[in-house]
Amino acid sequence: MQIYLPIAEVSVNAFLLLGLGGMVGVLSGMFGVGGGFLMTPLLFFIGIPPAVAVATEANQIVASSFSGVLAHLKRKTVDLRMGTVLLIGGLIGAALGVQVFNILRGMGQVDLLVKLCYVVFLGIIGSLMFVESLRAIRRSKVPGAVPVRRRHNWVHALPLKVKFRTSGLYISVIPPMLVGVFVGVLAAIMGVGGGFIMVPAMIYLLGMPTKVVIGTSLFQIIFVTAFTTLLHATTNFTVDMPLAVLLLVGGVVGAQVGAQIGTKLKAEQLRILLAMLVLAVCAKLGLDLLLRPSELYSIGGIGGHG
């Protein structure tokens, strides 16, 4: 069943979009990521212009993350105080990111920038997570192995300390605030919730327990991506509503399924699966940038909406 997307100016199969939304929703519930890092490139692959994919995908992330957070709130695995600190940073970052996006869009460089950002970040994050997860799995297989206690790092020496009871932490608010700003910028430029960067940062940099990280990450993602969508819709007019609705319906259903699957897998298994997914998407995007396109010249249909 083909459906015409007015802002993207292309026709796409509606069931394909529902399926993609559902698949990414499952990942959202399982891993605590908004799923945008996977969905936005998938939208590129089916012919949606990058500027529209970025702005519209932020919409779908809000819905699937909200659905996932409800499941985690029931289990009391959301650190609301930590989520609020990350959120303040995220809103500042999103406002900065939309400004950068608008400048680059005016220069006609936004499509290339978005794709390059994906290849670089997915490559780095995927590799780091994969190596760390392998180490964790090896450690868990050694009989009588003692789990490695987190040593105090430079984060614990910083001022402005606050007690985060749900996470069992007493650390400075500066690192989570900076993580939030960075993730907010990425949310605006790449159309991602930023979970694929925030989840590793919360585990390895802040030392939060994995079971609390997923729900807290989703809590912050909801508000930052909602704010980003609003800014894109009002300044760029690149939010395609029919596309957003189809992805949204699939995403909400998928997130509930994902939250259930996530409880049945070990933390190390979840992380290694996520790492493999990140690397696969990175490889496909990298190849697309290197190989000659099938059409050497394409008409920039999206430039006329500015």
Question: What do you see in this structure?
Answer:
Helices cover 70% and strands 5% of the residues. With 306 residues, the protein is mainly alpha-helical. It has one domain. The strands form 2 sheets. A two-stranded antiparallel sheet has the order 1-2. Strand 3 (161-164) and strand 4 (169-172) form a beta hairpin. Helix 3 packs antiparallel against helix 8 (210-235), helix 4 runs parallel beside helix 6 and helix 6 (174-190) runs antiparallel to helix 7. The longest helix is centred in the middle third of the chain and has 32 residues, at 110-141. It is globular, with a radius of gyration of 19 Å.
Briefly, what is this?
It is a multi-pass membrane protein. By secondary structure, this protein is mainly α.
Q: Please state the CA-atom Rg, rounded to the nearest Å.
A: 19 Å
Number of strands: 4
Strand residues, percent: 5-15%
What is the terminal-to-terminal distance? Answer: 30 Å
Order of helices and strands: EEHHHHHEEHHHHH
Family: Belongs to the 4-toluene sulfonate uptake permease (TSUP) (TC 2.A.102) family.
Keywords: Cell membrane, Membrane, Transmembrane, Transmembrane helix
Pfam families: TauE
Main location: membrane
Which helices and strands appear, and what pairs or packs with what?
Elements: E1 2-5, E2 10-13, H1 14-31, H2 36-45, H3 50-74, H4 80-107, H5 110-141, E3 161-164, E4 169-172, H6 174-190, H7 195-205, H8 210-235, H9 241-264, H10 267-290
Antiparallel strand pairs: 1-2, 3-4
Helix pairs in contact: 1-3, 1-9, 2-3, 3-8, 3-9, 4-6, 4-8, 5-10, 6-7, 6-8, 7-8
